[in-house]
Amino acid sequence: TVPRVLCPSLRKRIMSAKDAAALIPSGVNVGMSGFTGAGYPKAVPQALAEHIREQKTQGENYRISVWTGASTAPELDGALAEVDGIEMRLPYQSDPVCRQKINDGKMEYIDIHLSHVAQHAWSGFFGKLDIAIIEVSGITEDGRLIPSSSIGNNKTWIDQADKVILEVNYAQSAGLEGMHDVYYGTALPPRRKPIDITRPDERFGEKYLMCAPEKVIAVVETNAPDRNSRFSDPDENSCRIASHLLDFYTTEVENKRLPANLLPLQSGVGNIANAVMAGLNEGPFNNMTAYTEVLQDGMLAMLKSGKLAKASATAFSLSPEANKDLAENIDFYRERIILRTQEMSNHPEIIRRLGVIAMNGMIEADIYGNVNSTHVMGSRIMNGIGGSGDFARNGYLSVFMTPSTAKNGAISTIVPMVSHVDHTEHDVQVIVTEQGLADLRGLSPRQRALNIIEKCAHPDFRPQLRDYFERACAARRGMHTPHLLGEALSWHQRYEETGQM
Ligand code: 0RQ
Description:
Largest sheet: 8 strands, mixed
Shape: globular
Oligomer: single chain
Strand content: 15-25%
Number of strands: 26
Low-confidence stretches: none
Radius of gyration: 23 Å
Bound molecules: ligand 0RQ
Mean pLDDT: 97
Number of helices: 18
Structural class: alpha/beta
């Protein structure tokens, strides 16, 4: 294999993951690379988990705080959570072990907008960052770092940490070099400048990450693929959701509220999002663009077919097959994809200016259009808000989608009142389920309720929702957003008690 650590002074820092992990003391804040299962360090966190396990058998309460870009993988979140090694975790996570520890009260978790993470860190809201552990795909002779399959908060972690550990992953395509755009112009208020971008495919940063070589305490060479989870084939519900959305966009284009190639697309993670992309790939729109945070299989397929001309993101999240396709056609994709830092991929200013169409999944919505993306029955975290708030609040259109029921029909995802609010009624314009699409723009709360119940709710739950709404109106406590306070969360209560809403 061709060596990837070309900088002589950094070559001297090459060591084993075990030796690197031993340089991380208990109690520190560690900034790790990684975003939606891409570009996370793979060897040092596992070695650290082992180290923590050993220390714990000797009675040491060894824990660190972990800051990332977004979700990582079993080798990082899973391994460290398993040994109870994480004191505090931020931001988005989706690991089952991590989720369990958080919901059991054994791990603190701060769930914040992904665009806020870097600026909060710069402002010192989380305390001092001690160590950064960053996966890169190579180090140039003059010490510049070639990012890997995600950028996330890597620039910020490297800049802020006292010490840096680099994992150079030979399994990442060498052809990633040149795909990235790392913006070095961020400043805190009152010194901020406008960000000079008016199209998703414009570059305004550097192709490399910079790091003072004296900060690098270890370089670990690895050769392991990203998590690369498989997507399930689009099921009937996902296909119906995609079809409702395509009809809606077609009407919007006819009514001249959207251009013929739509506006830059943002698409969340998961199977529904992937199915919507598959639908768009078959649909009537051409020459589309994407300004999003994650590139899943669906968007790669759209680039390949030519339906999607250019895409900007901060990370990939691919199946093994799509990852193979990326590596084999990396020159083609490098012409069409830009990976940025997550402060830029999710930047409110840019999202508003470009007029992004935001499409994200949700747990539940209420009849007035408030959306819960994160908590099951009000208290148990699923993943986190991720970038959905960045895009929903600032996009030209914000769409939320879900099947109308969950857990084999025991749960209605349309409820009288959401049990947790991530996106308020003011940030939600379109709700789609397999039943239909509710366009909430220009509607008052009571008009929205009728629309959501009739278009989105499952027929099994529609009569109950109508009944709630009618009785809330009849109570005449307040006709702007009628509610029955004693009953608003009774559906969730009933599910907790009986297993059925
Ligand atoms: O649980 O697998 O145990 O059955 O939630 O639900 O239907 O598979 O949908 O994978 O698209 O996830 C909101 C979680 C949806 C996701 C959420 C249960 C359901 C299942 C998953 P099981 P589905 P998805 C860009 C944007 C926030 C972050 C975001 C998410 C599991 O979209 O995390 O948008 N969004 N980021 O059974 C109880 C309900 C439920 C429910 C679903 N009402 N009550 N359980 N489930 N609805 C990416 C980033 O920001 C990084």
